Amino acid sequence: MRAAVVSSFGGPEAVEIVEVASPEPGARQVRIKVSAAGLNPVDAGVRAGGFGGAGKRLGLGWDVAGVVDAVGVASGWSVGDEVVALAYGTAKPLGTHADQVVVDAGAVAVAPRSVDAVHAASLPLNALTAAQALDGLGLEPGRSLLVTGAAGAVGGYAVQLAARLGVHVTALAREGDEELVRSLGADRFVSGGVAPVSVDAVLDAAILGEDALEWVRDGGAFMGVIPGANPVSVRGVRTGAVEVAADGARLSELVALVDEGALTTRVAETYALDEVVKAHARLAEGGLRGRLVLVP
Ligand SMILES: NC(=O)c1ccc[n+]([C@@H]2O[C@H](COP(=O)([O-])OP(=O)(O)OC[C@H]3O[C@@H](n4cnc5c(N)ncnc54)[C@H](OP(=O)(O)O)[C@@H]3O)[C@@H](O)[C@H]2O)c1
C-alpha cells in the first residue's frame, strides 16, 4: 500500500509517498481502509521536525474516515463497519495519510450518517481537541469564554460546543470571519487590536499566549493548545494546555452531534493522496477556512 512519510525534515517537498506492506492489526486493534484523511497543522509540524524523531521514518496523518477491512482479536468491530478514528502520535511509523491504517479499537467510532467520508475525516482530531479543552475549563452554563482562532478547525468546534453548553462565547477571528463565527453560535465578535474585556476563560486556539491571557478575569482559566508553552499564570488565572487523547466513546458523542446538525464539519479542498506535497504547500500558504482532506 501507499503511505505518506517523512524521512528527513523540511518543507512540503520533504513528504514522500512510499510503498509499504499493509499493516496488520494486533489484539484490540482494527485496520481501516482509508476513504479520506484530514491534513492538519500537526502534520506540517511533524514534517518540519517540530516534534523530533530525527533519523526515523515518520508516518503522517491523524484523522481518518473509512471502512474496517481487518480486525484483531477482541476489537469489538467487524469488517465492513464504516468508521472514523484518531490515529494519535507525532512519531508513528505510519499514519492515516495512506491506503490503510491500523488504530486501537478504543480510538474508533461509527462514522456519521449525515456527511460523506471527506467531511467525516475532518472531525476526529479537532472536535476531540475542542471537547477535551472545554472539559479542562469546566465552564458552567452562563459563564463567558473567549475563543481565539474561532474560525479555525479547533476554534470553530469549540464555539459550537461551548454555545451548546450555555456558555456565552466571544469569538476572536479575522475581520472577514464575523458571519461564520456568529453562525457557529458566538454572541460577540472581536478582531484585531481590540482592548480586552473580562471573560471567565479563554481557549487560545490562535496561540496568542499572554495577549489572550489578558482577557481572563482574576481567578479565571486559560487553556492553550500547545502543551508546555502556556503563558505564566498571573492574577490567580489557572493555565493549562489541552493534549488531545484518542477516545472512541467521546468521538461517538461528537459524531452524534454532527448527525443532529449541532456540529459543522468544514472542508476547504480535497487532494489525491499522490498530491500530498501540493496539499502541504497549500496548508503552508495559510488562510484556509475548513480542512484540507486527502483521498487515496
Ligand atoms: N494540543 C493538541 O492536542 C492540539 C490538537 C489539535 C490542534 N492543535 C493546535 O491548535 C492550533 C489550531 O489548530 P487548527 O487546526 O484549528 O488551525 P486552523 O484551522 O489554521 O485555525 C487557526 C485559526 O486562527 C486564526 N488566527 C491566527 N492568528 C490570529 C489572530 N491574530 N487573530 C485572529 N485569528 C487568528 C487563523 O486565521 P488565518 O488562517 O487567517 O491565519 C485560523 O482561522 C494549531 O497550532 C494546532 O497544531 C493542538
TrEMBL record:
**Coiled-coil ranges per UniProt:** none
Q: Which CDD domains match?
A: MDR_like_2
Q: Where is the signal peptide?
A: none
Domain Enoyl reductase (ER), by residue range, is 10-294
What is a single molecular function from GO for this protein?
A: oxidoreductase activity
Q: Check the record and name the PANTHER family matching this protein.
A: PROTEIN AST1-RELATED
Q: What is this protein called?
A: NADPH:quinone reductase
- Name the species this protein comes from: Streptomyces phaeofaciens
